[in-house]
């Protein structure tokens, strides 16, 4: 019995006190896709879901998608420096490789680490984001233990439109982007959106004194991207389309006092073609063929041995049928995924594997009751895994809903954990998760409040053990030895008082390695956000507070990272003719804190820009 469970009265009081707080209040007509793999009004979704809309992204002034996600409930980050450096995103305490990341329905991530390369994802290309918390392996397969984050790039609609942005800020940071989008009308309509952007910054020193790799020089980055979406309405009920994203990031990092320009290059590419058909009036069929590539190069010094290259590629073929029976939806899915790895180093890593999956789900509404259920089977070289979930929601009143759910999930062993010489072992099994949660949501059109409790039990956790228990291995290696518990309460809400919009969230959690009794690395027991904004005519001003308790940088919990609180200010002003201006000042107190030991997060930074757009 944990502290989170043993103090229900304290949590109830906190929930009431937080009734004026939420990560943000979504409009009642918001439609989300990720929670059920089909468009649904947010009001009909049982899973705890957050959306980040285009306006929030535009006014965020964030230097990267990681900065933006850090301000959302249930999310923590770790980063080895500024916007261009290696980053991890923890969802409800789950590791980066225990969450799935999608770009327009295309799965991204490295097959060697199992995690998405967050620093290579361009914020400038993003239209909106959906975050679904909880296990979703029965819908998306391996790795959806903590949840799914889906990124949507800009899509064409309406009359031809042009948007553009140019900004400048601290560390000589420059940014510019432009988008051309629109759609033709008629029976054979054509939609299009093409975006391009470039960001460049001189940066600052990513490391601090004490790090073995410390070098006081600035570590800058150069990121550029282009993306596009195209859709053609062939006939009523029949559509074909294509989409792509290409992002390239070149960034510097520290590797001691060497005068050599130590740097890395990362490329993220996604592409897909799809067809949607309605052969029968109540059946929607989707066929999509997609591919994503995660390429990395590293120059750690002047010698040839200091150069490394790791390229991973994923190819997916998905066939999905949504069958409508009255207001109910039965979904039947087949998915084929092929992963390929190519490196300039260990030959044992240069291989491929395939996963074949079958899944089915059912979503229904009966009066005040909501129900969903799903099952899935994945077959791969690491064995076959069956997962399932069931959720129920009940509208106690038109404003108040109670929800409960249970789901199983798993994480597939990565190529590193299976094949890396001296570390991996082909006998490693998937990690498994069993999650139960309950929640309450209140929304009267003015005030919102939500509270969720989750209990996610993980077994067969893959960790680095030493000495390695397998003959022929030296040092530590990956082995299914640990158990963990991801348990917590998330409280969020929003209201408007005296013209001031108030939003906030609070996470109380206990992410624990149950085998050792230690807290999981770089995760706090409490963290949250508070935002207040006020509009006077065309001027909108706001203040944000980000806070976190202490964390530990290592598994034995010996190196403590102190808690912190950050205050950010922003203002936007809308001119006539579609022009607007943004000014943002992050960390106004120049708070010194740690997201990773000996690595320096951004200090006090100012960014300003001009945006033009019309629709």
Any descriptors?
single chain; 615 residues; mainly beta; Maltoporin, Chain A; 22-stranded antiparallel beta barrel; five-stranded mixed beta sheet; 6 helices; globular; disordered N terminus; Beta-barrel_TonB; transmembrane; Plug_dom
Number of strands: 35
Helix fraction bin: under 10%
CATH class assignment: Mainly Beta
Proportion of residues in extended strands: over 45%
Straight-line distance between termini = 55 Å
Radius of gyration over alpha carbons?
24 Å
Q: What structural category do the secondary elements indicate? A: mainly beta
- Largest beta sheet, briefly? 22 strands, antiparallel, barrel
Number of domains: 1
What is the CATH third-level topology name? Answer: Maltoporin, Chain A
What oligomeric state do the depicted chains represent?
Answer: single chain
- What would the principal axes of the Cα set say about the shape? globular
Low-confidence stretches: 1-24
**Overall pLDDT confidence:** 91
CATH-defined superfamily: TonB-dependent receptor, beta-barrel domain
Subcellular location: Cell outer membrane
Motif (TonB box): 30-36
Organism: Duganella lactea
Keywords: Cell outer membrane, Ion transport, Membrane, Receptor, Signal, TonB box, Transmembrane, Transmembrane beta strand, Transport
């Amino acid at each position: 019995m944990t502290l989170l469970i043993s103090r229900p009265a304290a949590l109830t009081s906190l929930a009431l006190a937080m009734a004026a707080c939420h990560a943000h209040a979504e409009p009642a007509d918001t439609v989300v896709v990720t929670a059920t793999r089909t468009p649904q009004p947010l009001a009909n979704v049982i899973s705890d879901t957050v959306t980040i809309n285009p306006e929030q992204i535009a006014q965020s002034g964030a230097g990267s998608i990681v900065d933006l996600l850090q301000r959302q409930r249930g999310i923590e980050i770790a980063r080895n420096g500024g916007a261009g450096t290696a980053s991890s995103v923890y969802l409800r305490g789950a590791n980066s490789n225990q969450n799935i990341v999608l770009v327009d329905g295309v799965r991204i991530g490295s097959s060697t680490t199992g995690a998405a390369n967050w620093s290579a994802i361009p914020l400038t290309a993003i239209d909106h984001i959906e975050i679904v918390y909880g296990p979703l392996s029965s819908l998306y397969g391996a790795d959806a233990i903590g949840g799914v984050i889906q990124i949507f790039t800009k899509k064409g609609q309406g009359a031809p439109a042009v948007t553009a942005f140019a900004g400048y800020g601290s560390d000589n940071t420059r940014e510019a982007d432009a988008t051309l989008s629109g759609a033709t009308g008629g029976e054979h309509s054509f939609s299009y959106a093409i975006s391009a952007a470039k960001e460049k910054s001189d940066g600052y020193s990513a490391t601090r004194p004490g790090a073995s790799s410390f070098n006081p020089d600035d570590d800058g980055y150069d990121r550029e991207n282009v993306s596009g979406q195209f859709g053609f309405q062939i006939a009523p009920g029949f559509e074909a389309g294509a989409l792509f994203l290409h992002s390239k990031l070149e960034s510097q990092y520290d590797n001691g006092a060497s005068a050599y320009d130590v740097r890395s290059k990362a490329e993220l590419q996604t592409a897909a073609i799809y067809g949607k058909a309605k052969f029968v009036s109540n059946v929607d069929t989707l066929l999509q063929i997609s591919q994503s590539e995660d390429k990395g190069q590293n120059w750690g010094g002047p010698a040839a041995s200091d150069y490394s290259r790791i390229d991973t590629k994923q190819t997916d073929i998905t066939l999905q049928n949504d069958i409508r029976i009255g207001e109910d939806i039965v979904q039947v899915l087949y998915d084929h995924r092929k992963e390929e790895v190519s490196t300039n180093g260990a030959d044992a890593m240069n291989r491929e594997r395939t996963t074949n999956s079958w899944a089915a789900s059912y979503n229904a509404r009966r009066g005040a009751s909501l129900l969903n259920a799903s099952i899935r089977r994945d077959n791969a070289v690491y064995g076959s895994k069956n997962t399932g979930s069931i959720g129920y929601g009940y509208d106690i009143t038109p404003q108040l809903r109670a929800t409960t759910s249970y789901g199983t999930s798993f994480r597939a062993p990565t190529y590193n954990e299976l094949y890396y010489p001296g570390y991996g072992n082909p006998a490693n099994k998937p990690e498994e998760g069993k999650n139960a949660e309950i929640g309450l949501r209140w929304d009267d059109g003015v005030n919102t409040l939500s509270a969720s409790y989750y209990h996610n039990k993980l077994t067969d956790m893959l960790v680095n053990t030493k000495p390695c228990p397998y003959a022929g291995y030296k040092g530590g290696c990956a082995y299914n030895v640990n158990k963990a518990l991801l348990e917590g309460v998330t409280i969020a809400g929003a209201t408007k008082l005296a013209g001031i919009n108030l939003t906030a969230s609070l996470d109380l959690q206990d992410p624990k390695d149950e085998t050792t009794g230690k807290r999981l690395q770089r995760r706090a027991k409490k963290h949250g956000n508070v935002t207040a904004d006020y509009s006077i005519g065309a001027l909108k001003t706001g203040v944000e507070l980000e806070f976190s308790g202490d964390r530990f940088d290592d598994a034995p919990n010996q190196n403590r990272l102190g808690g912190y609180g950050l205050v950010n200010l922003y203002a936007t002003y809308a001119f006539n003719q579609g022009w607007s201006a943004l000014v943002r000042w992050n960390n106004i107190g120049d708070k010194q804190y740690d997201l990773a030991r000996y690595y320096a997060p951004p200090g006090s930074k100012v960014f300003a820009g001009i945006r033009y757009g019309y629709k």
